[in-house]
Model the fold of this input.
Amino acid sequence: WNRVRKHDIEQTWDASIAPHVVASYSARISFLVSEIEKRIPTGGRVLDMGCASGTLGLTLAERGYTVTLVDGCAGYLDYARARHERGEVHFYTGYCDRKFPPGDAFDVVVCTEVLEHVREPSELLGCLRDKVRAGGVVLLTTPNADYFRFRLPSFTEATQEAIDSLVANSKDGEEHRYFFTREEVLTLMRGVGIKIGDAGFFLPVWLTGEMKFSWLHRGAFRLRGKPLLLNGVPPKGLRWCARYLCASLWFVGTRA
Done:
């Protein structure tokens, strides 16, 4: 609880601690909410798999969606319950499989920054596909292996030992691995029957605070008294190099 609460304070409640963290987290949540809202009307059923402290799901519930939050860590869900104020939200502790959580007709299944923690990514993606209704939306994000700061082998280049060791992180997503390229995730999603609707890169270096951009955010905060709320997707003029400038990948697919 103390560790999750510390993240919550830095990401949401006290922008003076690390303004770039607030800017990055705000851009992430705003982007995900907007992608859901433009595809599924208010009142739809949303499953957030690997929800951590539940910020995205709780935000959607407050906007009128019926939300199911699932995480393998009971402490995360206890914390999410404590934060829940408005909207219909259901909480489940466990890991996704064909029978869990209950239901298989969600309008949206969200899985953010989880894929890089599991030993069998195709198995997880297959479970997500089974949970969404026909024509429903699967929204996935994961760190970008092509981000310029990370040069470790990606999924198709890694040894079996490296892949097997991912399970050690599956219960607690504190350490996110930059493990997948855009093409690798696209191949995995198509392989389990998820039809790709859109995909791209987001959270550019100047937003996440890398390369000393954190000082830019801190200076702007001192001048403005509030964080810089920047767009999470790089402008069109820089899309050609977004593969190397952006820390995260996003994918929207439908159940074929």
The chain has ten helices and seven strands.
